[in-house]
Amino acid sequence: MFFIFSKLLDVFLSPLVWVVGFALFSFLLKNHLKRIFRVIAFALLILFSNSALFNFVSGNWETQPIKPGALSGEHRTVVVLGGMASENMHNGLPRFAQSSDRLWQGLYLLKQGYADTMVISGGLGSLFDKQKPEGELLREYLIAVGLKNESIIFESSSRNTYENARNVAALFKKHHLSDKIILVTSAFHMPRAKACFEKQGFEAEPFPADPVSSTRPMQWKDYLVPSGGVFAKWNVLIREWVGIVMYKLNGYI
């Protein structure tokens, strides 16, 4: 039930939906309220399309990236969380999202000797799509491109971050792995993910990937020119904040 509720709630966590909602409702109201609703819609439009504001907020929220050499060396299993790929219905291959940076960062740690084992955890995170579970999809892909070996383990039944942590904990017991892990997920997602894994008894060393904040210095246009792409980034951040509240209420973290 929690999984279904969280997916339905996503619809109402978009600033663009708020802008459109206030603008549309303004046509149903009398003059005084009509002006107020249109001013609110315009203010939200300006606020949530400003790149500099978003980067200030997200940069202060996200777990900051670290160099691989700064890792302690005591955690020899890297756990990579899914939510990075879905099945292309036209050819059955993975359709990689921006968050696939998680996979490439995890593979780097494994191939460069910062970890001995990699666990990829991801199932189906949508309500209605009957696609191949993400873990299976990535396993087949890595085999096809020659990157799969015995040091990579897959978990394919998790639907959300809580289930990632719970199912990986069971997997670790099965394979007798140490609970000291390097945790790889998107930088905005790291606080919630780390808390979930620690709740399951892991000692997690974060290695964030895929930051939504800018990785380059701010330019003048970031302060003055509205950006439509920033709206989508706010969706990600707001969903994450609400997710943390919901997880705390449910005792997941």
Give a description of the structure.
- With 253 residues, the protein is an alpha/beta fold.
- It contains 10 helices and 7 strands.
- The chain has helices at residues 2-9, 15-26, 31-47, 51-61, 101-111, 134-144, 161-175, 190-199, 220-224, 228-249; strands at 77-81, 85-87, 94-96, 117-121, 152-155, 180-184, 203-206.
- A 5-stranded parallel β-sheet has the order 5-4-1-6-7, sandwiched between helices. The chain has a two-stranded antiparallel ribbon with strand order 2-3.
- Helix 2 packs antiparallel against helix 3 (31-47) and helix 7 packs across helix 8.
- The radius of gyration is 20 Å and the shape is elongated.
- The two termini are 18 Å apart.
- The model has no long low-confidence stretch (mean pLDDT 91).
Summarize the structure.
With 253 residues, this protein is of the alpha/beta class. The chain has helices spanning 2-9, 15-26, 31-47, 51-61, 101-111, 134-144, 161-175, 190-199, 220-224, 228-249, and strands spanning 77-81, 85-87, 94-96, 117-121, 152-155, 180-184, 203-206. A 5-stranded parallel sheet has the order 5-4-1-6-7, sandwiched between helices. It has a two-stranded antiparallel ribbon with strand order 2-3.
Annotation keywords:
253 residues, alpha/beta, two-stranded antiparallel sheet, 10 helices, elongated
Q: Numbering strands along the chain, what is their spatial order in the largest sheet?
A: 5-4-1-6-7
Main sheet characteristics: 5 strands, parallel
Mean pLDDT: 91
What level of helicity do the residues show? 40-55%
- Kindly, what is the distance between the CA atoms of the first and last residues, rounded to a whole number of angstroms? 18 Å
Q: Structural class of the secondary structure composition? A: alpha/beta
Q: Cα-atom Rg, whole angstroms?
A: 20 Å
Count of helical regions: 10
Strand-residue proportion: 5-15%
